[in-house]
Amino acid sequence: MARPRLVGDDAILAATRQVLAELGPAKLTLAAVGARVGLAPPTLMQRFGNKRGLLLASAAQAPLLVLRAVEEAETRNTSPLATLRDFALSAVAHIKQREELGNGLGFLQLDVTDPELRQHAVAHSAAIVDSCARLYRAAQDAGELLPHTDVPALARHTLVCFNGALQVWAVNGWGSLTEFLTEQLDLMLAPYKVPRATT
Fold this sequence. Notes:
Helices cover 74% and strands 0% of the residues. By secondary structure, the protein is mainly α.
């Protein structure tokens, strides 16, 4: 009879993301991840094969995490545009140091060079763009966004704005990350928002 798993895969992959943020992919080890969840490296090898297998499993989970985060943001907001902002800011709420984003860029190098990791990165981007497009269409229906807005283009632009803001902040550290990201999103969306009626 198989022994029950006291630590689930989700907990291991969450620990993997934490170690990636702190150390980057080059310095990440099975021992470092295992230490976070109280498991020995051989146990992680049994589940994921090796370090690359662990990274692939973590990357495969990323699109699902996006969809889950958007759903959670929707429960906290009634406005589609407020939901989008909430989703964007909650995605970076855990980031405290600019070095964490630098370590994330190390993973970007793997996304570009490793076909399997790139496949997951593309799916992650698609989850963000598709979610943004859905929220923008809802914002049009709610009268928040101008009806002639090119929603697919704006959804892609949002991904560019989000990723670009993270990289610029990682280098320059202008204010807090949430303040800087809010400023960039507001500037991007301003031309597309329906003006508020003045009394």
